[in-house]
Amino acid sequence: MGLIRAVTDLLLPRYCKVCGRRLDMGEQHLCISCFLGMPRLEYLPEELSLAERILLTERNVVRAASMLKYEKESDYSKIIYHLKYYNHPSVGSWLAEIGARELRDKGFLDGVEMIIPLPLSSVKQRRRGYNQSAYIAEGISRVIEIPVADGIVTREVSNQKQAGLGRFQRWNNAEGLFSVAQPESLAGRHLLVVDDVMTTGATLCSLIQTMEKASPDIRISVFTLAIVE
Ligand SMILES: [Zn+2]
């Protein structure tokens, strides 16, 4: 395995997704110094996380956590670009696996029965070729061995772009974005909803409200790879 990696590294060098430095054999996605310098958020069960401050207003939300602080100007935002736009979604499952191991050890993932990636609209998914949140969900699934439920919730094709809208407009625009295809499969379950970056929380709240309406006795926890402070 080591020899194969050495040969492929020679022929197809891999680069750090943050600083661009060529990766050594043992490094994955990020060089060791960028990995150690990640703007991490520690989950402390006894304190409200940034995500919980926004999402605990929703009745059925139990817990919420994010792994990284997202700052647009920071080089670390390149991780999200790679994940969403540069066709490198495996960086999402790799990071989520690391985050999930820590969260599992703190009890954050206790009782979770199903992982639901925030869906993209069919048009957007076709254009991008993948759903980045599904990759994040896969990373978590590898750690807790709970299945990823794809296709239970779907996203309508939105007629307006979220980017460029003000906070209030975003809230309005987020209404009616999602629908639940199989409400019976959610009943009574504890679900982990997964997204890439949380900004205002409007899209996540819209999904949570749709799920609550379809199946009022569910419990929901939320994990996002990054969050805007
Ligand atoms: Zn680096």
What does this structure look like?
The protein has two domains: 1-37, no CATH class; 39-228, 3-Layer(aba) Sandwich (Rossmann fold). Helix 5 packs parallel to helix 7 and helix 8 packs parallel to helix 9. The longest helix is centred in the middle third of the chain and has 16 residues, at 90-105. Strands 1-6-5-2 form a four-stranded parallel beta sheet. It has a two-stranded antiparallel ribbon with strand order 3-4. The radius of gyration is 18 Å and the shape is globular. Helix content is 38%, strand content 17%. The model has no long low-confidence stretch (mean pLDDT 91). It has nine helices and six strands; from the N terminus they run αααβααβααβαββαβ. It is an alpha/beta fold and 229 residues long. Zinc ion binds next to helix 2.
CATH architecture of the largest domain: 3-Layer(aba) Sandwich
Q: What's the CATH topology label of the largest domain?
A: Rossmann fold
Ligand kinds: zinc ion
Average pLDDT across residues? 91
Structural class: alpha/beta
| Amino- and carboxy-terminal Cα gap | 41 Å
- Computed CA radius of gyration, to the nearest angstrom: 18 Å
Unreliable spans are: none
* Strand coverage percent: 15-25%
Name of the CATH first level of the largest domain: Alpha Beta
Question: The biggest beta sheet, please?
Answer: 4 strands, parallel
- Strand order of the biggest β-sheet: 1-6-5-2
Output the helix-strand order. HHHEHHEHHEHEEHE
* Number of helical regions: 9
Shape: globular
Instruction: Compute the number of structural domains.
Output: 2
> What is the helix fraction of residues, given as a range?
25-40%
